[in-house]
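Help needed: design a sequence for this.
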């Protein structure tokens, strides 16, 4: 993430063009910029490729319109440097693949840690599950954070609707 402060609204589009970047989705009812840690690309303790997976997710979903804001974090190891446990969807690297978390948010009076919904996933399986979660969230049409929806329907029902085994 890069923050440029003090810009005038009319200067934003020319700045994005000059940087050769797609405008960031820092606000709005969409998938926000994916937060990633250095992963195996730059970190000696990482267990999964957070940069590769995170950039893939950002390219595919950043700015995708949804009924409510949606945050994703990708951490290469359980140290959780990208704060995946407080994102709507989090991928956390482990020795045996990705652990996928859903329903976290850290804002407001009642913060909520994400629930573990799947473990031991390959990159492809984690990406597929991400797509299923986003499609499911879009189809619900509910204008609230994913964690609040999970609290309403129950974690087991959420996992069932995504075709995941319930533990």
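Sure. Designed sequence:
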């Amino acid at each position: 993430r890069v923050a440029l402060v003090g810009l005038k609204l009319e200067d934003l589009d020319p700045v994005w063009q000059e940087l050769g970047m797609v405008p960031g989705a820092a606000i709005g009812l969409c998938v926000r910029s994916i937060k990633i840690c250095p992963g195996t690309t730059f970190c000696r303790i990482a267990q999964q490729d957070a940069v590769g997976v995170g950039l893939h997710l950002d390219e595919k979903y950043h700015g995708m319109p949804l009924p409510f804001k949606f945050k994703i974090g990708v951490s290469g190891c359980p140290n959780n440097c990208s704060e995946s446990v407080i994102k709507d969807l989090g991928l956390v690297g482990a020795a045996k693949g990705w652990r996928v978390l859903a329903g976290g948010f850290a804002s407001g009076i009642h913060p909520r840690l994400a629930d573990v919904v799947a473990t031991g996933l390959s990159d492809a399986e984690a990406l597929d599950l991400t797509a299923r979660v986003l499609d499911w969230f879009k189809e619900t049409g509910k204008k609230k954070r994913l964690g609040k929806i999970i609290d309403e329907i129950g974690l087991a029902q959420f996992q069932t609707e995504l075709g995941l085994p319930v533990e």
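Residues 68 and 143 are 5 Å apart (CA to CA).
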